[in-house]
Write a structure and sequence with these properties.
Blueprint lengths: L1 H16 L2 H8 L3 H15 L4 E4 L2 E4 L1 H28 L5 E6 L1 H18 L4 E5 L3 H10 L4 E5 L7 E9 L1 E5 L1 H6 L6 H4 L4 E4 L4 H12 L8 E3 L2 H9 L4 E5 L4 H6 L3 E2 L9 E8 L6 H12 L1
Parallel strand pairs: 3-4, 3-5, 8-9, 8-10
Antiparallel strand pairs: 1-2, 5-12, 6-12, 7-10, 7-11
Length: 294
């Protein structure tokens, strides 16, 4: 088929130029080589494709029919090659990212802005969900990469940590007045606690750590977003477990106060993950590079 494709390219050019000599010039071939190619194709197909005249060539009925298909096919191949080059040069394509709302707002946005400035022709699709939901979506191929809370225990995933974050407890003015010394975890759980929902990976991390200390939590409120945690704590609904790095607007203005604990919760990481068995697209690889470099 590869040999025939070369023959069809010659056939198409002869048809476009209506001349063997003009086609030879366009293809950087000799005229005898072009004539031989057409003769070979006619022999293989068992039909005559051109009428030869002193003024040039014209299609036979069979040749005219074949030209329509050959011209369309070669044009499609050329378009396909151009699209491949566009993807290769990142002037076309799509990047699909799975990320939670909080990480998207407080971590991802600057990298998206940088990526879009560098590759404005690429489409970026964002899919939201919890860490566990997004990792399942990743395995279906509906996203290229996931940016989420670590740790993750999944041998199918490649994990690339990007930043370290600290889980802390915060409170509004009401509790600030009565919490004047560092608290033990045993003392902490006597207050109304505000946590993310149970399916949150960051909630599970803190909960598992406290269980390792023999402390079991029973939150007064379980909410679906980090911003709600902050707002509930601000109006004194209880003490909220939040990510310190994502709460600076509240802490720096004094709207919320970090509660001092006798023992800090160990830092954890946020990073990029993708399937080990599936090579990253050029767009996804470039995005990961940008995140890691900065």
């Amino acid at each position: 088929m590869v040999i025939k494709l070369d023959l069809y390219k010659v056939f198409r050019q002869v048809g476009l130029n209506e001349s063997f000599s003009a086609a030879a010039k366009s293809l950087y071939m000799t005229q005898p080589a072009v004539s031989q190619a057409i003769k070979q194709l006619e022999t293989e197909l068992g039909v005559r494709l051109f009428n030869r005249t002193p003024k040039g060539v014209s299609f036979t009925q069979e040749g005219s029919l074949l030209f329509e298909y050959a011209n369309s096919a070669i044009n499609l191949l050329q378009v396909g090659e151009e699209k491949i080059l566009e993807f290769k040069n990142l002037t076309a394509g799509e990047l699909k990212i799975g990320v939670g709302d909080t990480i998207s707002r407080y971590f991802l946005l600057p990298y998206l802005e940088d990526f879009h400035k560098r590759y404005p022709s690429l489409t970026v699709k964002i899919i939201n969900g919890t860490t566990f939901e997004l990792c399942e979506i990743l395995k279906t191929g509906d996203v290229d990469i996931v940016i989420c809370n670590f740790p993750l225990e999944d041998p199918a995933l490649e994990l690339r940590p990007c930043i370290r974050v600290q889980d802390v407890f915060v409170c509004g003015q009401k509790y600030k007045k009565i919490l004047t010394k560092p608290l033990s975890f045993q003392e902490l759980i006597k207050f109304p606690l505000i946590f993310l929902e149970e399916n949150s990976n960051s909630r599970k991390y803190v909960e598992d750590f406290m269980l390792s200390k023999g402390i079991q939590i029973a939150p007064e409120f379980e909410l679906g977003s980090h911003d709600l945690l902050l707002e509930f704590a601000k109006i004194n609904m209880g003490i909220a477990c939040v990510t310190k790095e994502f709460s600076q607007d509240y802490l720096s203005t004094g709207a919320l106060t970090e509660i001092q604990l006798e023992e800090e919760i160990p830092e954890r990481e946020i990073g990029v993950c993708y399937l080990k068995t599936v090579p990253l697209s050029r767009a996804a690889k470039r995005f990961v590079d940008i995140v890691e470099q900065q």
